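Input chain follows. Return structure tokens only.
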Amino acid sequence: MSASALTIGFDADDTLWHNEAIFERVHERYRALLADYHDAATVDRTLFATEMRNLGLYGYGVKGFTLSSIETAIELTGGKISAEEIQRLIVLGREMLAHPVELLDGVADTLTELAGAYRLLVITKGDLHHQERKLALSGVAAHFRHVEIVSEKDVGTYAAILRRYAVEPREFLMVGNSLKSDVMPVLALGGAGVHVPYAITWEAERVETGPAASGDFFEIATLRELPAVVRTWAAGRVQ
């Protein structure tokens, strides 16, 4: 097997570019808006519960977050929130959607190095239009052979993607900031995973117990370390 037969998948948000930091800044403004009604912990807890309740309807992304933030604000103020304040929440959502794409350290160089030897995919959750826009503005879209924007990232989703592109699990390496969404489902299929932790982890992506140490699981600090990991992984598969 040649290196070109191996496939590397990349998560997008908080793996290729900043995302959760943008949400956190909006959360700060959201807490301030509701500070006269509830403490920050109550606001955070209620908003998260609303997001999880609505996830099956809205999916992941800014639009679903904005709708859930409005619903939560109405609930926490007992319906007293004004039309002007709701408009402020809508503006916050619009600002998030229009936010510039800021690549993480080492992304452009790493993708340039790997794209010449391996087939690269983007596999990401979120709103279709917003994710397509961010990828188009990122400056790195040309490195990817295929793009998959999915509603969930679980074992079934990855299995379907690998079948679609005729990739054997042992020939697939997934790179991402979420153990829950990017690494553990792929390991369960028999593939390999690289965890690149981001400074902030959304509560819905946290896991109590990570994967056991193995030859198929790697953890790195930045994507600049990825080429060396890929070489180690590929060496066990290329004959």
